[in-house]
Amino acid sequence: xxxxxxxxxxxxxxxxxxxxxxxxxxxxxxxxxxxxxxxxxxxxxxxxxxxxxxxxxxxxxxxxxxxxxxxxxxxxxxxxxxxxxxxxxxxxxxxxxxxxxxxxxxxxxxxxxxxxxxxxxxxxxxxxxxxxxxxxxxxxxxxxxxxxxxxxxxxxxxxxxxxxxxxxxxxxxxxxxxxxxxxxxxxxxxxxxxxxxxxxxxxxxxxxxxxxxxxxxxxxxxxxxxxxxxxxxxxxxxxxxxxxxxxxxxxxxxxxxxxxxxxxxxxxxxxxxxxxxxxxxxxxxxxxxxxxxxxxxx
Length: 298
Hints:
Blueprint (H helix, E strand, L loop, with lengths): L3 H8 L1 H19 L6 H18 L7 E7 L2 E7 L1 H21 L15 H16 L4 H23 L8 H26 L3 H23 L6 H18 L6 H23 L4 H22 L1
Antiparallel strand pairs: 1-2
């Protein structure tokens, strides 16, 4: 004898047809693979790289801003490279919003959180691009920077819709790319030999954006501003402690990367109500491996 639910559905053909159609629409929606418009994407990436390329041919005198305080002297050199880097970061945020607004789900919520990593990416790739000479290595840097920025924009486009079946993969890719960007930023600033009062705010801002976006992804859209600020404060203290130690740029970046990633992962694990062992196992393993590699390199 057939099940009663089946008889009920067969006895109500209108309801049964509506349910089948609803399931079919949901199934098709889940299988949709939305990608950014290639024309808009290529225009945005090309404009950012073109801005960095043209800035190398602009020769303007820099300005020095100096402040004398009791016991300390601050001097900041403002050059065309500094101005272009911040302008390009703003251009990237605007362009990312222009690109992401085409997503069918973009009208349902703000796209603000999707600006953070693209802006950070365009700012970070500009540091080595300005330092590399006009040579095959320099042009290779432009290619790598363009590919990296493209991947970040595509992944951010996918993560707009949490129901997209590629969302977990895109979120994991964004997390890996964001911490790789922070590592690149730390190494580049250390290699440039900047003073502490310039490195400290740059790295604090970088790890704030990375941890904030990573926690937002892993906590299913919840903001963890206090936790991200705590991670940034911890990184700032480590930055100040490492600044005057004889540490190579790569080891310097890895030593900052290890605790930053470990604390971010620990916070997200605890927020997801994982067990004590699960919460501490993965961050601790990554921390030991990263610090061990840093010690071997140094």
